[in-house]
Amino acid sequence: MVNTISTPAKDFFAVINERQSVRKYDPNVSISKEELRDIIEMAGKAPSAWNLQHWHFVIIHGKEAQQRLYPIANHQQQVVDASAVIAVLGDLEAYKNTDAVYDSLVNEGAMSQEIKERIAQQIEAAYRNKQYARDAAFNNASLAAMQLMLVATAKGWATCPIGGFNAEQFKQEFHIPERYIPIMLITIGKSVAPARRTTRLPIETITTWIER
């Protein structure tokens, strides 16, 4: 029998402390499309430059599809044992979202047409620089990816971000349009073993204070 899990939402600080990169999953535990939709919807509330929402999610859900991903992800067993794998893509052409993001605000009277056009010009100018487009895709999609993992943790699921995969093979196998660039894979499922123990650098190492 295939099992599913459901856990009440957790305190935010508990989520921060509990989220770990889990690499060993119970292959008999499934996750529903509805649960995945809920997690992704919450991930999509992450901040983004100009609110352009520079992300796209490819959900690899089902053992047959996950087996297709297995060699692309360097034969990592977690890819097939997880309940699903979510590929986070960055949008290199997020400027095309401008009207979808701002027209409703104009129609509601929350923003003037003049301000909307001014913002659109700023966005268009920024996206003439291909390096900016790439940087924005990575930066903003990564914000959504982190939020996705925190939401999953709050709902009782384990996750692991994966950077070790062949992005070009992924694009070819799953027919990804040139508009999108693969940022990372995220496995999601039920843990069967503790995450690998990690240490954190002391705050003195990771901070510089400028007070005048």
From TrEMBL:
KW Transport (keyword) present: no
Key word Nucleus present: no
Pfam families according to UniProt: Nitroreductase
The Nitroreductase domain, residue ranges: 16-190
Swiss-Prot/TrEMBL keywords: Oxidoreductase
Domain of life of the organism encoding this protein: Bacteria
Any one GO MF annotation of this record: oxidoreductase activity
InterPro entries linked to this entry: Nitroreductase (IPR029479), Nitroreductase-like (IPR000415)
Family: Belongs to the nitroreductase family.
Identification of the protein by name: NAD(P)H nitroreductase
